[in-house]
Design a protein that fits this description.
This protein is mainly α. The chain contains 19 helices and four strands.
């Protein structure tokens, strides 16, 4: 359900799509040459190969076409969102989720502020280990129920879940996704520089948890309903017995463990994640006593609930499609990186960090951003005397912007819509902590450059 405050998320996204179309008329068209890395199979940018190309500005029809093309381009993410969200809806229908939320609410009724760090630790593990992100969508409904029970608003619960996973992933010394992409591209051993990254990670999480605690204290309202009041299960659901809760919890936990192992050891992507969530939904529905008919009905209800969030993601991808088809995406990257040729060593490190944070707006895909920026910046960093480890840290820390600030990725807007939080309210809340994390990243960049990390 979209927020009732501010401009509608779909209107926001379409406005940015139109702005991207206007930019294709203003910016010069240009592209880098690309080549296939035979070792990894990735398509990489050839450093120093940027050159002007024939203009291809987006007209009205191209702007409209960008939306269905964006939906097609985001197909993997969209289908994961639909399947995972539907699976969580089935779990809601068993009543097990409501029973757990009710139990947590009773146990922490005298210490409500502990709900935020308790929830956050679960998402910290997923974010730090394999870059958990889209998966958070599946948990938002139950987290909002828990938050309302304890007096917290939607911003607090989105921050505790998506925000924690994003910040943990951005600064983690063991993120199999971000480091698995960036360190091999920088020809660095996987998980190298762990000691330095661990120190920065601890500092970043201290900043983030301090923000969560202060925001929770500031905005929490006193809940007037009786503390022992049971939370009603989702529409069509029922109250769960102890056996149902145990069985469903076992299936859910087994699936989460499988996702972590699959991401870390078997290079699972969103297709495998979606299949695992589908299997979990079926298992939980049958174990929870819904039967075949009830499980199918739960999936159907989940598809209806998640359709809006899925569409937001696809429309957001239309922004990237517009810039790519208009042949100005590489121009933006070249414009941001060209000043590095005339900067000193420490200034170059700071410029690299700033450029990575800025380019996270037009290129919200973390893997896509790596493919465009790292092949250009790695040889340039060597010429300028900037450590490759510092460059990798600049890249990973920039995912804070693409993850919780810029709406062009779509996922953040989808989650905020489900939590009934406007983008304006969200950005106002997280702006100070994002600024603090940027300062931390700047300090890490300067220190790492002076130390000459290898």
């Amino acid at each position: 359900m979209p927020s009732k405050q501010g401009l509608h998320p779909l209107a926001q996204l379409m406005g940015i799509v139109i702005l991207a179309s206007v930019l294709t008329w203003i910016l010069p068209a240009g592209q880098y040459d690309r080549m296939k890395d035979t070792r990894t199979g990735r398509t990489l940018v050839v450093p120093g190969s940027y050159h002007p190309v024939e203009r291809n500005p987006a007209g009205p029809w191209s702007t409209l076409m960008a939306v269905p093309l964006g939906l097609l381009s985001a197909g993997k993410v969209i289908f994961y969102v639909l399947l995972s969200g539907a699976a969580m809806t089935v779990i809601e229908a068993t009543g097990a989720m409501s029973a757990v939320v009710d139990s947590v609410g009773k146990r922490l009724s005298d210490r409500p502020l502990w709900v935020i760090p308790a929830v956050s630790m679960l998402f910290l593990a997923g974010g730090a280990s394999y870059g958990m992100y889209e998966e958070v969508l599946a948990f938002i409904p139950v987290l909002c129920v828990l938050g309302r029970r304890m007096g917290f608003d939607g911003v607090a619960m989105v921050a505790a879940s998506l925000g924690t996973a994003t910040v943990a992933g951005a600064f983690s010394p063991v993120n199999t996704f971000l480091l698995g992409i960036s360190q091999p591209m920088a020809e660095l051993p996987l998980f190298s520089g762990m000691a330095f990254r661990t120190v920065i990670f601890i500092a970043a999480m201290a900043i983030w948890f301090g923000f969560l605690w202060l925001y929770g204290r500031k905005t929490r309202r006193v809940v007037t309903e009786p503390a022992d009041r049971a939370i009603e299960p989702a529409s069509g659901g029922r109250q769960a017995g102890r056996r149902t809760v145990i069985l469903v919890a076992a299936a859910l936990n087994a699936t989460m463990v499988m996702l972590v192992i699959g991401a870390a050891l078997w290079n699972w992507g969103l297709e495998e994640f979606a299949a695992a969530m589908l299997g979990m939904g079926v298992a939980c529905g049958l174990l929870g006593g819904l039967g075949v008919q009830g499980t199918a009905a739960g999936f159907a209800d989940g598809f209806r609930r998640m359709a809006y969030a899925a569409v937001l993601i696809g429309v957001a991808r239309a922004i990237l499609v517009t810039l790519e088809n208009g042949r100005v995406l590489d121009t933006i990257a070249w414009f941001l990186f060209s000043p590095l040729n005339h900067a000193g060593r420490e200034a170059s490190g700071v410029f690299m960090l700033a450029a990575q944070w800025i380019i996270s707006v037009p290129i919200p895909s973390d893997s896509g951003k790596a493919m465009v920026t790292l092949p250009v910046l790695v040889p340039l960093s060597d010429l300028l005397g900037v450590s490759r480890q510092v460059l990798v840290s600049a890249y990973t820390s920039s995912t804070v912007i693409s993850g919780i600030v810029t709406p062009t990725g779509g996922t953040i807007l989808a989650i905020l819509a489900m939590a009934e939080v406007s983008l304006t309210k969200w950005l106002k809340a997280v702006a100070p902590v994002c600024a603090a994390l940027l300062v931390l990243s700047l300090a890490a960049t300067v220190i790492g450059t002076r130390l000459g990390l290898r």
